Every structure is written in structure tokens, then in C-alpha cells.
Structure to design on (353 residues):
């Protein structure tokens, strides 16, 4: 019998790709999702795995809800990906971000300690926890030994999650790891993130559906990788003999401006004719540059990135162009279609009685 995995945040970019990856590995996959008036399962449908996973409605601010999800799934591995993950929004809702993004990690770890202490736990940390270190070190690639100096409520909440994961590992012997993932993108990225905002708007401008793209700081530099490759690194971390923390990155930094130039250039467009800088999209605090050193992951996990910057931009732009072309022909997007959970793969207490 194959392993069982529980993914929090299975409806997000990483959750959907990880679900597909684990299914291909022969896992039985369970995932938690928030009850919403308009369910958000389009990514799982897009990857063709919606009817292959078991969905559990759960609230990460409610300990009993988390324990129930563990009892239903009885997981060998838990991948904690759910969060309020938009940096800009964390300035608008700092308390909620701290609760959902930070304290939820403690709730899950405590539930594992009480119910299934042998379960392996992956915590999704973030490069944003380095924060100001990215300024002080002059742009040098950051590794697991560099200091953390967060510059947003989101990064601060994630840093709490990072340290509580290490505490539970050292205090209780739980197999718990932190993946310090630098930015990773794909055609499944949400439109609130700058890379997908760019690729989607470039496609619309190219097809005559839009005339303008408004962005904030064009000079911010990030280390952008390809999300399907990063979920493999998550899995590899839980297959090791000993738990540890790893930076996952490409080792290259590129600016938002470079992403814009490349994206518009692929469609033969002059970006300067369409892009407007809008101060409303500037963050109260922003890290000028973040780039990662993945040498530890390469040495211990055998992992390294395969898709670099130019190919990533090409994949995202081409996919958005293809989507809008199909839309112009009358096809529906996956997120346009009815998205309600079916009785076959939504699990609740009643189904277990």
C-alpha cells in the first residue's frame, strides 16, 4: 500500500503541483481547503487531479479542525503550504496574517505531536524571512546560515513558523523540516503576484484585449524558479534519514523590469509603450534583492533547478496567450466552470461514521 499525504493549501499553486507529483509517486493524497462561497478548485482541475484527491474542509485557526483532518487522512507525511501568502496584503491584515500564516504551523505541529507523532512534517518557509539581509550582504546568494531580518508582517509570521518547526523537531523528536523556497512561479500562479500579472496582461495586450499594464517597483530583483520543480524538493526533504532545513533557489537574480522586457519581447511588443509605474503598488517596505544559494540542497538532496529565467517567462507568457486565444474562440477557462466539490472526494466526519 502506498503512502498517505495531507497537503494544507492544496488549492494553491504549490498544493496542486505537489498533489499531482505525489499521485504520480503512488501516494493517496488528501488536502485541506477553506469553505468559500465560490470554491477554488480550478488548479486541481487544470492539472487533471481534482477527482483523484480527497478534500477535507478545514479551518487552520481551529485546532479541532486540524486534528479532525489528521484523523481522517492518517498521513505518513504532512505538507503545510496554506498561508496568507501575499506580502502586500500582509500590511493590510497583519493580525490575520500572523494567525493564519504563523500560528497555524504551531497548531499543526501540536496536533501531530498529540495524534500522529511519527508523521513527517514539511513547513513552507520563504526567502522573505531573510529580508534586510538581502540589502546588507550586497546581493550575495543567501544560504541556510545567513541571518533572518524580515521586512513584512508576512515574512515575520513565516519566520515564527520556521522557528517553531525547529523547536518541535529538537524538543519532541518530530521529523520536521523547513523549505526556505525562493520565488517560484508557473501558469498556475495567482494574478495578484507580479509575474503572473505580467504574463497575463502581456497576453491580453498582444490579443487586443487590454492596452495597459500598471506595476509598482520595476527595480526589485528576485530569484525566480519553476514551481513544479520546487515541489519535488519538498518531497525530497521528507525522504532523508534526518530532518533538516534547505534553501531552494536558482542562484540567479532578475528584476521585475527584466521580466517585463522578456515577456513583451516574446510577443514582439515594446514594453515601454504599455507599462505604467503606479505608486499604489509600492510596498511600505520592500527588499531590493533576494537571491538564493541552493548548494546544500544539491549536495544532500540531489536537487537543482532545471528551468531558468528565460524559459520560465516563455512558459508563462505562452500559456496565458493560449488561454486567451481559447477564450476568444468561446472556450471556458477552468476557473469559469462550476467548481463545487463532488461527494466522491470531499471527506467529513459523517463519511467516516
Amino acid at each position: 500500500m502506498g503512502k498517505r499525504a495531507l497537503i494544507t493549501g492544496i488549492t494553491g499553486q504549490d498544493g496542486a503541483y505537489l498533489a499531482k507529483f505525489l499521485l504520480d509517486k503512488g501516494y493517496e493524497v488528501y488536502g485541506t481547503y477553506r469553505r468559500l462561497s465560490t470554491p477554488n478548485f480550478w488548479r486541481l482541475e487544470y492539472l487533471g487531479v481534482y477527482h483523484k484527491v480527497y478534500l477535507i474542509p478545514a479551518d487552520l485557526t481551529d485546532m479541532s479542525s486540524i486534528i479532525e483532518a489528521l484523523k481522517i487522512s492518517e498521513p505518513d507525511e504532512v505538507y503545510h503550504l496554506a498561508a496568507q501568502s501575499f506580502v502586500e496584503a500582509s500590511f493590510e491584515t497583519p493580525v490575520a496574517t500572523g494567525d493564519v500564516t504563523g500560528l497555524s504551523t504551531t497548531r499543526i505541529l501540536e496536533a501531530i505531536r498529540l495524534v500522529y507523532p511519527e508523521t513527517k512534517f514539511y513547513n513552507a518557509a520563504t526567502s522573505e524571512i531573510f529580508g534586510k539581509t538581502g540589502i546588507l550582504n550586497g546581493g550575495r546568494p543567501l544560504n541556510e546560515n545567513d541571518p533572518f531580518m524580515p521586512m513584512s508582517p508576512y515574512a515575520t509570521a513565516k519566520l515564527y513558523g520556521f522557528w517553531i518547526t525547529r523547536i518541535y523537531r529538537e524538543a519532541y523528536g518530530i521529523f520536521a523540516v523547513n523549505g526556505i523556497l525562493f520565488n517560484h512561479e508557473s501558469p498556475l500562479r495567482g494574478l495578484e503576484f507580479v509575474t503572473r500579472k505580467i504574463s497575463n496582461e502581456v497576453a491580453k495586450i498582444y490579443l487586443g484585449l487590454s492596452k495597459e499594464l500598471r506595476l509598482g517597483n520595476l527595480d526589485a530583483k528576485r530569484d525566480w524558479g519553476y514551481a513544479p520543480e520546487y515541489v519535488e524538493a519538498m518531497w525530497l526533504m521528507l525522504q532523508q534519514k534526518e530532518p533538516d532545513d534547505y534553501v531552494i533557489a536558482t542562484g540567479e537574480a532578475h528584476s521585475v523590469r527584466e521580466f517585463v522586457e522578456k515577456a513583451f519581447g516574446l510577443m514582439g511588443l515594446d514594453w515601454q509603450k504599455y507599462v505604467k509605474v503606479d505608486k499604489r503598488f509600492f510596498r511600505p517596505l520592500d527588499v531590493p534583492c533576494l537571491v538564493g544559494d541552493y548548494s546544500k540542497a544539491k549536495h544532500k538532496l540531489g536537487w537543482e533547478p532545471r528551468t531558468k529565467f528565460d524559459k520560465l517567462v516563455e512558459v508563462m507568457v505562452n500559456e496565458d496567450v493560449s488561454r486567451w486565444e481559447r477564450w476568444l474562440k468561446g472556450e471556458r477557462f477552468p476557473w469559469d466552470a462550476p467548481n463545487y466539490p463532488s461527494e466522491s472526494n470531499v471527506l467529513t466526519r459523517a463519511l467516516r461514521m
Remarks:
- The domain at 4-352 is CATH 3.40.50.720 (Rossmann fold).
- The first helix runs from residue 13 to 24.
